[in-house]
Amino acid sequence: MSSCTSHKIMEEDVPEKEKTSTCSTLLIFLSIAIIILTLPFSLFVCFKVVQEYERAVIFRLGRLMSGGAKGPGIFFILPCIDSYARVDLRTRTYDVPPQEVLTKDSVTVSVDAVVYYRVSNATVSIANVENAHHSTRLLAQTTLRNTMGTRHLHEILSERMTISGTMQLALDEATDAWGIKVERVEIKDVRLPVQLQRAMAAEAEAAREARAKVIAAEGEQKASRALREASEVIGASPAALQLRYLQTLSQISAEKNSTIVFPMPIDLVTYFLKSKDAATQQLAEAAVAAMDNKSLALATPTPTPTAAEPSPNTNNGNKDIKSLEKSA
């Protein structure tokens, strides 16, 4: 039953095609006759020119002519039955408007991009889609949103080239059926909310301060080691300290200062301290010896002296005390 039905349909299609071809042939001959009758004015209508960067897609009686697009240069059309469409093959630039995108880590960002594309097949771009340019632009917007929605915020900020390449491949594959070639996609700007910008700035500032403190601590550690080594060298050679004093004075005098601070060597101070300590120690020893002599004199019984004759021990004690005071 089905085979019989298909056979009948084929039999019905054959006469329709024959009728169409016969009608189109008659119209073509009629158009040629009009051209001949209206010469030379018809030549202005029949000959068309397209530029180097353009192609012409010709339809004859609504059907696409074989041989593909015409151009560049001059081509011939039949009036009344032929129509053509010009297609520009130059690269076009589309500035994608800012798109509000929710990233994978739930952060709302505004992203805009630039898409560079061109028509690679003029015939397909006219026959397969109503408006290839408008369709490509809408697809670029949706692709931008879909691609950014699968990424984290740090990936969007740090991997722009990778995201651009992914978008370019996706757009090129989708627009191949429309005769469009996407050459390049660039992410222009990623706008973050103001509160998030402040939080990120505070975090970056804290990280910088932490690194600065670590660097300062390392510098102090290295400086302390260098000072220890310098002190060891100066301790091994006392003359080096005096040379350092002279070098410091020369540096101070070179700056034209009105006040010069001259450092006193520590060795001189220690010498005076040592001499003073020795004198004090001698005085203390003499005082102790005098006290011992006095205690011994009091302990031994002696005859009571007369008023006219003073005790010899008392005189000796007084002399010792006076001599000690003079020496001190």
Give an overview of the whole structure.
This protein has ten helices and eight strands. It has helices spanning about 1-35, 45, 120-125, 130-150, 155-160, 160-175, 195-235, 240-255, 265-300, 310-325, and strands at about 45-50, 55-60, 65, 75, 80-90, 90-100, 110-120, 180-190. Helix 4 crosses helix 6 and helix 7 packs across helix 8. It starts with a helix and ends with a helix. Mean pLDDT is about 80; it is low at about 1-15 and about 305-315.
Keywords for this entry:
8 strands; disordered N terminus; 328 residues; 60% helix; 3-stranded antiparallel beta sheet; 10 helices
What's a concise summary of this model?
This protein is an alpha+beta fold. It has ten helices and eight strands.
How would you state the average pLDDT, rounded? 78
Decide which structural class fits the backbone: alpha+beta
Q: What best-fitting shape do the alpha-carbon axes yield? A: rod-shaped
- Low-confidence stretches are 1-16, 305-314
Main sheet makeup: 3 strands, antiparallel
Q: Provide the spatial order of strands within the biggest beta sheet.
A: 3-2-5
DSSP summary, beta strand count: 8
Provide a count of the helices. 10
SSE blueprint and pairings:
Elements: H1 2-37, H2 43-46, E1 47-50, E2 54-60, E3 63-64, E4 73-76, E5 82-88, E6 92-102, E7 108-119, H3 122-127, H4 132-149, H5 153-158, H6 160-175, E8 180-191, H7 194-236, H8 238-254, H9 266-299, H10 312-327
Helix pairs in contact: 4-6, 7-8, 9-10
